[in-house]
Amino acid sequence: MTLLTATGLHKAFGPTPALAGAGITVDAGEIVAIMGPSGSGKSTLLHCLAGILTPDAGTVLYRDVDLGSLPDARRSELRRTEFGFVFQFGQLVPELSCVENVALPLRLAGIKRRDAEARATEWLEKLEVAEVAAKRPGETSGGQGQRVAVARALITGPKVIFADEPTGALDSLNGERVMTLFLAAARATDAAVVIVTHEPRVAAYADREVVVRDGRTRVVEPAA
Amino acid sequence: MKGWVNDLALGVRIALGGGRSSWRRLALTGVGVGLGVAVLLVGASMPTAAVERQARQDHSRVVQGQPRPPGAVALYRQYAPELFGGDEIMGSYVVPEGPGAPIPPGLQRIPGDGEIVVSPALADLLASPGGELLRPRFPQRVVGTIGQEGLLGPNHLLFIAGDATIPRTDQTAYYGFGTPAATVTDGTQPWYWALGLIGAVVLLLPVLLFVTIGTRLAGPERERRLAALRLLGAGSRQVRRIGTGDALAGAVAGLVFGVGFFLVLRAFVERFEVRGVSVFASDLTPTPLLGALVVVVVPVLSVLTALVTMRGSLVDPLGVVRRSAPVRRRLWWRLAPTLVGVALLTTQAQAFLRHPSTLDSGPSIVGVALLLLGIPLLLPWLVERSVGRLRGGAPSWQLAVRGLQVDSGSAARLVGGVAVVLAGGIALQTLMIGQEAGVRDRQYVLQDPSRVTLNLEGDAVERGEDLAELVRGTSGVTAAAFQRWFIARMPTQDVLYVQVGSCDTLRQEARIGQCRDGDAFRVAGAAPVAVLPAPGDRVDLLGPGPLRVAGQWTVPDLTAVEPVDGDPHRSGIVLTPAAVRGTDVVFQSSQLVVRIDPSSPDVVDRLRAALGPVGRQAYTRQVTPLDRERPAADYRTLWRLFLAGSLVVVALAGASLLVLALEQVRTRRRPLAVLAAGGVPRSTLAWSVLWQNTVPLAVAVVVAVVVGSGTGLLLQRASRTPLTLDPTGIGALVAGIVAVVLLVTLCTLPAVRRATGATGLRAE
Q1: Total domain count for chain B?
Q2: B37 half-sphere exposure, CB direction, 13 A CA radius
């Protein structure tokens, strides 16, 4: 089942075009890697797919609903309930402890603190970082922080997880560990994953690749 | 040495050379520090203003009854102050003895008979629509304006009129101007100045705090810039010197802005008046010493603050790291100033009770200053402890509280300044309530607001009955009577004031039934204060002028009556005119006693306008309903001045709070953007900013209310005024501060909106 369909996306920042007719589809439970060199527009494509940015032209359909037609509040709600996010760095609230960071999406959904933090602890255990639950992000290693971020992205049971260079700030060993745990957890919840990366090593985890160059997309079929 | 200078210069260049954001930050620091500098410069100008004013006052002063110096020519002068609409109009009528008579300061020549010179402020008042009732009192031809050297201030209401009818006696002869005299004080002055000084402490203390906070705010940005320099090979000491230059640039910008603000204020200063005192623009000039002190202290304070801030962190080539975990704040030394302040104010109250005639305001002011100084010292500790205990709550609350638990110092320091203003305001307000009520009770409780007495002189005495008839036609006048007084000395040597007037006049004093001209009455309450002479007794008649015996008078038959107000202690003799006709009675004074409706607006001014043609020969210094409010109004004026100062300081605090909030949003841009990307509503983030501002402020408000009310009550106790608090006033002050915080949060929202955009997510 197709969850996301983007067609003819155009987006410019001032005189600089970032997307020039890009398009992509994402099916349920599928892992898609968006690749491309720096400045090619891959992050912009991800932001448009997630409803963070509104394209200048083109449409993004999530379950046949045009994200561009939704008001900001509705798009925020969608991101809170249906989507999850993992970024390269600086994504955790530095003042909150790790367990509070993971519990935050549930708290925003109105779940009581105690219950939210209990579920957050379970997710931290699944991602093998239960020992940092009470620590603040600044007191954890890069790999630990990234796994905490993955736990936060997965805790609401999202249908699509957007990851922008999730291992970009990690060494290869930690990157491997994060990707393994991340994708295993995503597959366990049948969530689709859209990963922006410029590392072929990370893209290798994906079911298929989409290459972005000069704002346009090209689908690379998986090797048979 | 050259290296030092180069490093400092490099710091300045770095502060200025960062493009638009650098200039914006510099402008913000400049405005913040500049407002403080402007307030400090006004404070530094106060001695000049006081000295210049005193010099002009001394220059205009005259001494009555001086012996004639050899060859001197007299200026005959009668002082004739007026009251109009609650304002005091000072002035005199003059006539020269001949050529060479002394010319009053500020005048080119002595006005001739029927001429008048007025101060610019009085000229404006006379020309204004509001001066309509005043113009009849000055029918003379205006021939000039009194110059600055003859005025105490630009709003000084003063006239000098020529009048050839002035009695030419030793008592009215003056041979020169410019005699220094002992300082004249009234009962309200020490406390008035004490209040003023406390107000200055309250306003200047936060100003210094904000100067340091303004410098601290730029700290993280400065350290990041310096880290980049370390990467290029700058040593740690060199980096400190460069940082000093960087901080110096902000301080110098603050000085430039401050001088600018001060000059703007100076241009408008002549429009303001405090307690009837206005200041010439030329008087608002900082004394060289204090001015230099401001110019030196502000940059030094900024640089020291920057250096102290840098001590807590290590500027490394790979970035800035905290030197150590934040040290848990200790209470004992923070509490010390508060305890000393309380002790001082308490002992002051005890000393005052032992010696109630004097109140040395020095220890009180030091006590107040220490109590207020204690607030910004206590607040970081209190905020840290308070937020440390907070748990749970909505996500916005949790975000804010956790943020404060990590670093509450900046916010606590900032609200410390606001708390000082608030506490000082509450203390002053509490104290003023007591003083205002005290002044009213002390001075005017016995005044009858429905009665105005006008003294008549010269020709006006002969026309007394006609003038009474004239004023009876004035709107708001319910009755008018002409009365005269003479003084008799009884064999017991007691002096008796005897009133003479028509039956209607006497009925204003005593319950007189049947009456005809020639009747005489003995007024005595149940417990009369004086033993009155009996009919047939012969008593000495005294006067005029120095009390000498002018003849004798035989007391006629008296009809006993009671005082009209039933006062049991009142006693005296009142007569109708025919009862003294043909005797040697010498009248000491002649008066118009006018009954007015005090609720009728401007009735006293209308009454004086009706008597305008009589000029100086009918005058009153009696307190009118409006005048009764004057001392209380003085306190209100001081209060308004303080509020204006508070407004500046709170605006300064608001600006600093805004800069702090924007700085927090900027440094947290990425987490905020990630949260927004994850669907966290912007309202949640906005609320978290609000809570982050509000929680320290709530602690500050509680501390300010406690310290302010406590200080006010201690001062009330010291001055033996009734202990009273003004919840409405305190509420208004708190509401004002809360409104500022809400406004600051509102102003922060666009920055939050920008920070939560997709650009904050970019990692490349």
Answers
A1: 4
A2: 33
CB-CB neighbors (< 8 A) of B398 in chain A = 96, 100, 107
Structural domain contains residue B67: no
Domain that holds residue B428: 326-445+627-764
Give the model confidence (pLDDT) of A105-134 as tens digits. Answer: 888 778 888 899 999 999 999 888 999 999
Domain co-membership, B530 together with B397: no
Residue B594 shares a structural domain with residue B484: yes
Nearest to A148 by CA among A124, A173, A126: A124
According to the model, what pLDDT value does residue B245 have?
Answer: 85
Residues of chain A with pLDDT under 70: 90, 221-224
Instruction: Give phi and psi for A215, each to the nearest 5.
Output: 85, 5
Q: Is residue B641 pLDDT above 80, yes or no? A: no
What is the average per-residue pLDDT within B535-548?
76
DSSP character for A135? S
Residues B96 and B225 in one domain: no
Q: Cβ separation of B763 and A47 shorter than 8 Å?
A: no
In chain A, what are the helix, strand and coil shares in percent, each to the nearest 5? 40, 30, 35
Q: What is chain B's mean pLDDT, rounded? A: 77
Question: How many Å apart are CA B193 and CA B278, to the nearest integer?
Answer: 16
Residue type, B204: L
Residues from chain A contacting residue B677 (CB–CB below 8 Å):
47, 50, 52, 79, 85, 87
Domain shared by B467 and B419, yes or no: no
User: Do B145 and B289 fall into the same domain?
Assistant: no
Residue reference for tokens 């040597």: B493
Pairwise CB contact (< 8 Å): B670 & A91: yes
Interface membership of B753 toward A (CB under 8 Å)? no
Spatial distance between the Cα atoms of B133 and B606, rounded to a whole number of angstroms: 6
A 10 A CB-CB count for B157 gives 24
Whether pTM > 0.90 for this model: the answer is: no
**Residue B135 sits at the chain A interface (C-beta within 8 Å):** no
Contact A93 B671 (CB under 8 A): yes
Tell me which of B129, B147, B174 is where a domain ends. Answer: B174
* B299 and B414 fall within a common domain: no
Q: In whole angstroms, what is the distance from residue A112 CA to residue B257 CA? A: 52
The answer to the question of residue B475 being in a domain is: yes
> Does B718 score more than 60 pLDDT?
yes
Beta strands in A14-93 (DSSP E): 16-27, 31-35, 57-62, 65-66, 83-86
> Does B458 map to a domain?
yes
What is the per-residue pLDDT across B325-347, written as a single tens digit (0 to 9) for each? 555 677 888 888 889 888 887 87
The CATH architecture of the domain made up of A2-220 is 3-Layer(aba) Sandwich (3.40)
Residue B253 lies in a domain: yes
| Partner A contacted by B547 (CB < 8 A) | no
- Picking from B395, B671, B764, the nearest residue to A92 by CB comes out as B671
Q: Is B615 in the same domain as B664?
A: no
Query: Rounded to the nearest 5°, which phi and psi values hold at B374?
Result: -65, -25
Q: Are residues B314 and B199 in the same domain?
A: yes
> Chain A residues with CB-CB distance to B under 8 A?
38-39, 43-44, 47, 50, 52-53, 73, 76-81, 83-85, 87-97, 100, 104-105, 107-108, 113, 136, 152-153, 164-165, 168
End-to-end CA distance of chain A: 22
**Please, are residues B283 and B49 in contact by the beta-carbon 8 Å criterion?**
yes
Partner-chain residue, chosen from B399, B405, B678, that has the shortest CB–CB distance to A79: B678
Range B130-148 burial, b when 16+ CB lie within 10 A, else e: ebebbebbbebebbbbbeb
Q: Which distant-in-sequence residues (6+ apart) come within 8 Å of B323 by Cβ?
A: B311, B312, B313, B314
DSSP for B217-239?
Answer: HTHHHHHHHHHHHHHTT--HHHH
Q: Which of B297, B324, B351 is the last residue of a domain?
A: B324
